[in-house]
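Feature request, filed as a ticket because there's no other form

It would be nice if the structure record came with a short human-readable summary line next to the tokens. Right now we just get the raw output. Example of a typical job, pasted below so the devs can see what we mean:
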Amino acid sequence: MHTTLAAPARANQANPELLARLAAALRKMRTLPEILDDIGDALDPQPPAATEVEDIHERLREDLERLAAIAEAAETADPEVWRLIARAAELESVELPQDHPGWIVHLRKQGAVANDLLERLTVTRTIKQVA
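Raw output as currently delivered:
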């Protein structure tokens, strides 16, 4: 007598709500070249207009979070990577300036840390070279 093979019952079927959240998160994820563009926007000798600063700041904040997550997932042991991640967290914790020149200074600091972190992750071969 032959028994029929049946697919095992899945205890945790795909939850449509969870799948929708994951899809939204993936759509929101920025590529490394896009991160480089954000860094360029922050460090460009021509400062961004006041209307663009907040948007660039938010993108850089998300970029730094992504780079930190990459380092964490790769379990990098490089102390410079962790120093830069700590510096990014420090920048995130300060109260943002209320004036345009202050925003530009903060943006440039964020951009410099993101640039250095991306470069260090490339040097340590945590990520592939992007440019």
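Something like this underneath would help us a lot:
Confidence is low (pLDDT under 50) at residues 1-11.
The CA atoms of residues 11 and 70 lie 30 Å apart.
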